[in-house]
TrEMBL record:
GO CC term, one of those recorded: nucleus
Segments traversing the membrane: none
Domain NTF2 as annotated: residue spans: 1-95
Location relative to the cell: Nucleus
PANTHER family per the UniProt record, alphabetical: NUCLEAR RNA EXPORT FACTOR, NUCLEAR RNA EXPORT FACTOR 3
One Gene Ontology molecular-function label: RNA binding
Name of the protein this chain belongs to: Nuclear RNA export factor 2-like
UniProt keyword annotation of Repeat present: yes
Major location (coarse): nucleus
Domain TAP-C: 124-146
Length: 146
């Protein structure tokens, strides 16, 4: 979108309604995500807004780029609908070819499973952010604090 010079084409390619967004997602190639690569970063939070990004890697499992490993960042701007649900106000997806560092441990079986004592201790502010994110997003607390 950034490289397009024609403003009318940019507007035409932008998706606004739920149906338009779903149709555009359905034509994307099938993928397999490496869940161990996922990282969630909450970068802004107030009582009326929660902004966070999800980073990770995936590979395409069909099409011309089959088995190509890609990295993604998906950024969400949300507002609370109730105490347990969020409304996505904006959703931005950025996909690129994964770099060697991102691909070196993807889709492999982990050799080491860390115990609770090997996880770093979170400071009070990080724990509070994790709890707030867990309550607002509905994500389980353990995953919210990773």
């Amino acid at each position: 979108m950034k490289k397009l010079k024609d403003p009318s084409l940019r507007i035409q390619l932008l998706k606004h309604t739920k149906c338009d967004i779903m149709r555009s997602l359905c034509v994307l190639p099938k993928t397999q995500h490496d869940l161990s690569s996922f990282m969630v970063d909450v970068w802004f939070q107030t009582e009326t807004m929660l902004c966070f990004s999800v980073n990770g890697v995936f590979k395409e499992v069909e099409g011309t780029s089959q088995d190509s490993v890609r990295a993604f960042t998906r950024t969400f701007i949300t507002t609370p609908v109730s105490s347990y649900s969020l409304c996505i106000v904006n959703d931005d997806l950025f996909v690129k070819d994964a770099n060697p560092k991102e691909t070196q441990s993807t889709f492999s079986i982990p050799v080491f499973t860390p115990s609770c004592s090997s996880w770093p201790t979170l400071c009070q502010k990080q724990q509070e952010m994790g709890q707030t994110f867990s309550m607002q997003s509905g994500m389980n607390l353990q995953w919210s604090q990773k």
